[in-house]
Predict the structure.
Amino acid sequence: MITDARPLAPEFVPSDVVHRDAEVNTLSANLRPIIRGEQPNPSLLVGPSGTGKTCIARYTVDKLREEALDVETPYVNCWEDYSPYRTLYRILDELTRAVDIHRTSTPQDELVERLREYDEAPVVVILDEVDQLEDKDLLYDLFRVTGLSMVLIANREEALYGELEDRLQSRLQTASSIRFDPYPTQELVNILTDRARWSLREDAYEESQLRRIAESAAGDARVAIMTLREAARYCRREGLTQLTSTAVDHALPEAKAEIRQKNVERLTEDQQALYEIVQEAGEIRPAALYEAYQNRVDDPKTDRTVRNYLEKMERYNLICARGENRGRTYVDAQTEH
DNA sequence: CCTCCACTGGAAGATCGGGAAG
DNA sequence: CTTCCCGATCTTCCAGTGGAGG
């Protein structure tokens, strides 16, 4: 029943976007100075996950490239490349293919210097999940590179601004921020209809099934599309030719589990042990957690290191830290409501 | 009110691994 | 080969926070 799986992939950018005209237009207008050879102010796309920020950023930047031929548009996901060094490396890698940059032994300052020297074309960097960047000073360096402009993407504006120093804050004042809200159900249905039309056999789905998916996705397009994909896979496994209600029911928890599983796999052995303990306990106090951890692994790290792990796992949305100081407990994000 | 103490998280320094330079 | 230098990771140290209990 699947004719083309690509439109169901998380990173797919459609050649035409729906329901985000205003956002696209604002972002296009922000970037327009590039065509005249001027440097645009940074743009800041803010909103919860699955509201189309990444998609619209990539889409708009691609359009810009069609109009102004020599624009480079490197994309960095700061969740994956969270250290300043890796972010810089990724940008340069996309710009120059980084042939002679070796993973270590090239100091960070030199990477910045190379970015400054790059003058072949104006550069628009998309920094996705920029609130996950652990050292925001890098933004300041990037702001000062002439010929480089930025599209910043963050879940919550406060999370970003809260950590910034004054000099960065004042720089970001000039940024125009574009707010993304969760999709209403009908818009999700339309998005799903497009994806289904591009990727599934025509007679394989009905709008009522897509609507069920849209309703359960709570405004999150990523969850909706992943659910559709899981449902289609389920049908293929079971040899069904039609998207059924059973398939949709199966798909929703599976889509969520898949997102979770991806995050767990990225953890180290120690971190996975911690995650298991929290998962088994449901809710656990710090001292008990550390004690259980010491018993579980052969060569336990110090408690301070464990706190760094927990912070990281919280950013991955695997666990939640509830309360402060003495009242702190760690909760499995899955059972947390 | 005050003191205790479990807990947090910043800062600085040690150590590791890998590539470059000598 | 050794030495040097880098980022990444982990440890050590510690000031700060706020709830519990005198």
Notes: Residues 102-106, 285-287, 303-304, 307-308, 311, 324-328 of chain A lie near DNA strand B (CB under 10 Å from a C1'). Strands of chain A lie at 43-46, 75-77, 123-128, 148-154, 176-179, 283-284, 319-322, 329-332. The two ends of chain A are 36 Å apart (CA to CA). The mean pLDDT of chain A is 91.
